[in-house]
What we know:
This protein is α/β, with parallel strands linked by helices. It has helices spanning about 15-30, 45-55, 65-80, 95-110, 125-135, 155-165, 240-255, 280-295, 300-315, 325-335, 365-370, 385-400; strands at about 5-10, 30-40, 60-65, 115, 140-145, 180, 185-190, 220-225, 230-235, 235-240, 260-265, 270-275, 340-350, 350-360. The model has no long low-confidence stretch (mean pLDDT about 95).
Amino acid sequence: MSQINKVVLAYSGGLDTSVIVKWLQETYQCEVVTFTADIGQGEEVEPAREKAQAMGVDEIYIEDLRETFARDYVFPMFRANTLYEGEYLLGSSIARPLIARRLVEIAAETGADAVSHGATGKGNDQVRFELGAYALSPGIQVIAPWREWDLNSRDKLMAFCEKHDIPVEMKRGQKSPYSMDANLLHISYEGDNLEDPWNEPEEDMWRWSVSPEQAPDQPTYIVLGYEKGDAVSLDGEPLSPGELLSRLNKLAGDNGIGRLDIVENRYVGMKSRGCYETPGGTVLLRAHRAIESITLDREAGHLKDSLMPRYADYIYNGYWWSPERLALQKLIDETQERVNGEVRLKLYKGNVTVVGRRSETDNLFDASVATFEDDAGSYDQQDAEGFIKLNALRLRIAAKNGRDLDT
Length: 407
């Protein structure tokens, strides 16, 4: 790696990234620029400014990116009904390309040679941050302290803080034993007793949702309005993407919705057990499929479904800025041009139930064709005979040739 004069660090203000600031200054003899993003993690980000200043940082970026995150990352992903390995709603994965983009933009603005992050060498986030940075700024240098230093325990980190007079905030009360990541879409939990996949998560671990057993005995009904595949209103009230997702998090969490406990396959090769709360996202996924059911052409929908696992892999593995993801996004967005209407949902004790869907302008559901009561309309039941025989032709030929279909 060539001489580093200035580096932009993704800075949370916590223990790890505070140590990284001083470590970068000491190891590379360089200036450090800190970047702190508010993407809805639910904690104040402004205190990061004072902490960075205390360590001699002159250029400090603190930005509210909640709306950008929801509008340009979360909502495009939900147009594809995206799930990784059939379950995970990609709450951590989808935040990384936004942070990577701002890191390299700030590097360009400040004349920095490199960017840095606090992701460990065992996780997916190092891949996501760095693939994004290289895709957007091919000449950028990346410093990943967890792959370089020997501060591989909390005791060593605390000793480093003491040696360098780094203030460590000692919060009152019991510290959570879990490694957590939060943003407007989700909160994740890893570590401690979750490292044994047989252990049930402790109830006091969850932050955003009540248990289904403790949820209200009466259901909550809501109506989501859609335009071009994006939710744009809640119960008739127009809302921005960030506002809408925040409201849904509260409504769904209060009804015990959005908890997930999975063992996933990390891109770096290992299996990892994690728990997630994604209340609003769980509702959005169910509602979007419901509005597509009456507005999206069958084959377009089936094509989307067949491509979704690959699209999910691109996001999970850090390829948001790749040509393949960008091309696939164009196809997905094209299918959403006429996905307009409303969905009515019932939220009750951990469940999201679709109880109504309608579209005044783009409804492909024709009751006169689908009804069992009358043959009026464009469907002639006798046409089905020829349709079936044509589709059975290859099966009949195989049977005549004595093909054993049980082998």
